[in-house]
């Protein structure tokens, strides 16, 4: 690459109104406003913003209109992905004014400042966990070759499964079978990193040689010291990415927090609402 490229990674924005939503535990609009004020101070100026899913808390069209207005004010290109809290119909209607084909998955790609950004829709309507539909795999196979020489960022709300087989917390990621297939498709494709969210804590993994960067997001943080329940505490971070010819660097910017408890979920509930595990053909 001829020059460094800087970008911002947001995730799990959960835009909504906590006064009218029992499942929204913080003022996410206020948090996003604070973060965007900080983003405006970044030097060099970022080339783009990635918002990797759970854009809205309830998936209503009004929340996407509010988000669009806030993000448009930055003057930066924004790459949106959809997560399990989003609804495709609400997103298409509120963000784009679209009135047809409202249940189609939202996958797309774009080149900005010499970086090929590929966005997958890992949302599985009605479920918490992630999956990738067959048509998306076919699209991905083609789009990977459209700018073969360019470095790539992949955006996907649910991170891929990291283990050697399915696990009991499969609501936390793209189902294992689809993750394996994704890894095979991305191998050797000059992928600088995968940008994800969903699990509400900062995490960096090297997956088949590809960095997988997960952000805490702007709604709440997972207490990773508790493994018997899903304990949510107050907390928010965003990421600043720098792309050089040598690769990708990510820095995490935490907002001040007291880590007060916001809610606790039993793991049994999460497992029940994970994405259906694909059944292998006989």
Task: Describe the fold and architecture.
21% of the residues lie in helices and 26% in strands. The chain has 282 residues and is of the alpha/beta class. The protein has a single domain (5-272), classed as Purple Acid Phosphatase, chain A, domain 2. The strands form three sheets. The chain has a six-stranded mixed sheet with strand order 4-5-6-7-9-8, with no helix packed on it. Helix 2 (61-72) packs across helix 3.
Secondary-structure blueprint:
Layout: E1 5-10, H1 28-39, E2 48-52, H2 61-72, E3 78-81, H3 88-96, E4 108-112, E5 115-119, H4 134-143, E6 152-155, H5 176-186, E7 191-196, E8 203-207, E9 210-214, E10 221-222, E11 229-233, E12 237-244, E13 247-254, E14 261-266, H6 267-272
Parallel strand pairs: 1-2, 2-3, 5-6, 6-7, 7-9
Antiparallel strand pairs: 1-12, 4-5, 8-9, 10-11, 11-14, 12-13
Helix pairs in contact: 2-3
């Amino acid at each position: 690459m001829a020059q460094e490229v800087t970008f911002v990674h947001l995730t799990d924005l959960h835009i909504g109104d906590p006064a009218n939503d029992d499942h929204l535990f913080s003022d996410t609009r206020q948090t996003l406003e604070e973060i965007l004020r900080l983003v405006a101070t970044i030097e060099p100026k970022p080339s783009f913003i990635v918002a990797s899913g759970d854009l809205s808390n309830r998936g209503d069209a009004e929340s996407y209109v509010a988000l669009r207005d806030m993000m448009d004010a930055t003057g930066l290109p924004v790459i949106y992905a959809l997560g399990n809290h989003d609804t495709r119909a609400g997103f298409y209607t509120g963000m784009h004014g679209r009135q047809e084909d409202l249940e189609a998955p939202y996958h797309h790609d774009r080149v900005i400042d010499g970086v090929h950004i590929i966005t997958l829709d890992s949302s599985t309507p009605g479920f918490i966990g992630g999956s990738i539909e067959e048509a998306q795999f076919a699209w991905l196979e083609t789009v990977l070759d459209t700018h073969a020489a360019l470095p790539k960022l992949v955006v996907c709300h649910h991170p891929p499964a990291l283990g050697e087989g399915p696990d009991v917390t499969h609501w936390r990621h793209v189902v294992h079978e689809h993750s394996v297939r994704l890894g095979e498709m991305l191998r050797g494709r000059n992928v600088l990193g995968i940008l994800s969210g969903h699990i509400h804590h900062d995490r960096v993994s090297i997956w088949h040689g590809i960095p997988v960067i997960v952000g805490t997001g702007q709604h709440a943080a997972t207490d990773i010291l508790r493994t018997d329940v899903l304990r949510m505490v107050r907390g928010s971070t965003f990421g600043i990415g720098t792309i050089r010819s040598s690769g990708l660097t990510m820095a995490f910017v935490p907002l001040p927090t007291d880590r007060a408890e916001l809610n606790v979920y039993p793991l049994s509930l999460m497992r029940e609402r994970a994405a259906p595990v694909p059944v292998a053909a006989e």
